Amino acid sequence: MDFKNLKRSINLVEAISIVIGLIIGSGIFLKPGIVLKNAGSPKMAVIAWLTGGIITLCSALSIAEIAANMPKTGGLYSYLEELYGNIWGFLLGWVQTVISFPGSCAALSIACAILTSYLIPLSNFQIKLLAVGLIAFLTIMNILSTKLGGVIQTIATIGKLIPIIVLIIFGLTNGKVNIYKSTGAISSSMGLGAAILGTLWAYDGWIGVTNVAEELKNPKRNLPRSIIVGVSFVIAIYIFFNAAIFKILPADKILSSSQPAVEASVVLFGEKASAFIIFGMIVSVFGALNGYLMTGARVPFAMAKRGQIPFYKIFLKSHSKFETPHNCLILQSLIADIYIFTGSFNTLSDLIVFVLWIFLLWEFVVYSYLERES
């Protein structure tokens, strides 16, 4: 069966932007309170964020080494199939095609729409319609050009980092709360393990750049670099961001707030600043959504090459003019739309973390074993 290879149009900067943009989405804004509650204290919460980052980095280092030698479209799906047999790749491919990527797109589009409702009043149905509209818009942009999707990703990544870095700088320098004494209303905790688990959604997404390996320029060099640099950068951002929040707000305030970043910005800059932070959060989630749409569509494309999905001849075709996997992008957006109307942000995010880390842990454990044996 003849098909066109996807165009190599993504450079190192755009690849790093994809990694950072995929990771930094809603988790950094929505998870601090949950992690703090489970950890039991601000100090232990920071340790949980660091530990979650180290776990993610260990997995990322393993994948980066594999990716450098097998820069194939489909990422982890292709690696599992190549290293451990067709059954593992087949199972992950279907999980990513039907659950992981479209579910993440749905969760992120819902989060983006909910954040928008803080600036523009929206009903629940209007929030869902906006979520569908966001997916439709970004799907069209990524069909028109992978390069355009990469540009959107780079701009969104820069845009999302501005309010985060502002909060970090002013929080660490002007915050009045003693992080070592701020216990507030924390009366019980689930333990460090539960706190670390809460960080994994916030760190999720980094592996998505491997799905577009075939479209990277010089993938043997740029793919591992983008993963290592991107994940390391996000770990630092998360630690400093949480430390800043804990210096601005007492623990009981963080626990009682659904949006501690907004509360922190109000303390630092006043009521009017909250709109700026909310807009930054919207840009953050929007960038993550674009990254998931861009990278997720490459999994069914890779499966279609192997004839592992129904109507594979349709899905392995790239657009005759734009050289993008347009049918796979459309498929992913339609599945995401179904999730939008049937699920919530928390339900979808919990589902995704549960199913995806089964495969990530398998990859890490088995690859580490094979490395020792060799």
What does this structure look like?
With 374 residues, this protein is mostly helical. It has 17 helices and no strands. The two termini are 37 Å apart.
Question: How would the global form be characterised?
Answer: globular
Mean pLDDT: 81
Quickly give the structural class.
Answer: mainly alpha
Element pattern in H and E? HHHHHHHHHHHHHHHHH
- Cα-atom radius of gyration: 20 Å
The main β sheet shows up as: none
Helix content: over 70%
Give the distance, in angstroms, between the N- and C-terminal Cα atoms: 37 Å
Strand composition percent: under 5%
Low-confidence stretches: none
List the helices and strands and how they pair.
Elements: H1 12-23, H2 27-30, H3 32-39, H4 42-69, H5 76-84, H6 86-116, H7 124-144, H8 146-174, H9 192-203, H10 219-248, H11 251-256, H12 260-269, H13 273-296, H14 298-305, H15 312-315, H16 326-342, H17 345-373
Helix pairs in contact: 1-8, 1-10, 1-13, 3-4, 3-9, 4-9, 4-10, 4-17, 5-6, 6-7, 6-13, 6-16, 6-17, 7-8, 7-13, 7-16, 8-10, 8-12, 8-13, 12-13
